Amino acid sequence: MKHLVVLTGAGMSAESGIKTFRDEDGLWEGHDVLEVASPQGFASKPELVLEFYNQRRRQLLEVEPNEAHYALANLESNNKVTIITQNVDDLHERSGSSSVLHLHGELFKIRSTYNESDIMEWKKDLVMGDKCKYGYQLRPHIVWFGEAVPKIEEAIKICETADVLIIIGTSMQVYPAASLMHYAKNDTKIFFIDPNPSMNSNSNLTVIQEKATIGVKKLIKLINNT
């Protein structure tokens, strides 16, 4: 049984109606990214940051997985599949994928500002005054710019075991996530699905220049023929 490791980014969920991280002007929903996704932004304008993620959480409650999510989940019938996602949504889980590692946190979870290991499920709005059991303000369980990525070492170990590495909907420009493909074995077959790919095909890399739903269908045909 092959081990398929799948790295997914914003393009994976875009067809479900979730906007990609930054617009062309570099803003996210009209905000400077550092204003709503950094410890400094939270310290300066906590109400703004909390409401920003409240809006993202409400949106996530209204969308559904797309065909690409379900197709990846179906690959588990004949393969070992591990998904490493930069996305903070739960669409992989909702589509049936059983092994999902979230590099950048999860929108439906929050944590204490006192103890980052004090994490809880949360699907409603989070406001100032919502506190952990020790009386400290709660914050989104999201890895912000300038913060460490706690699960990167686990992700590296997973990539080292990949027989096939699949990259979907990410520019592979944001580190440390962008470094993960370099930990795959030299003979690992790599597929890169993106409508605007940042890499070119070579002997070890196959580029599928499509959006996720179309690209994953083509990927499955290629995998079945190898």
Describe this structure in words.
The structure is a single chain. With 226 residues, the protein is of the alpha/beta class. It has 2 domains: 1-18 and 65-104 and 149-226, TPP-binding domain (Rossmann fold), CATH 3.40.50.1220; 19-62 and 105-142, SIR2/SIRT2 'Small Domain'. The protein contains 8 helices and 11 strands. It has helices at residues 10-14, 33-36, 39-44, 46-62, 67-74, 91-94, 152-160, 212-224; strands at 3-8, 27-28, 31-32, 80-85, 100-102, 105-112, 119-121, 138-142, 164-168, 189-193, 205-208. The strands form 3 sheets. A 6-stranded parallel sheet has the order 5-4-1-9-10-11, with helices on both faces. The chain has a 3-stranded antiparallel sheet with strand order 7-6-8, with helices on one face. A hairpin with a 6-residue loop joins strand 6 (105-112) and strand 7.
How would the blueprint of this fold be written?
Blueprint: E1 3-8, H1 10-14, E2 27-28, E3 31-32, H2 33-36, H3 39-44, H4 46-62, H5 67-74, E4 80-85, H6 91-94, E5 100-102, E6 105-112, E7 119-121, E8 138-142, H7 152-160, E9 164-168, E10 189-193, E11 205-208, H8 212-224
Parallel strand pairs: 1-4, 1-9, 4-5, 9-10, 10-11
Antiparallel strand pairs: 2-3, 6-7, 6-8
Helix pairs in contact: 5-8
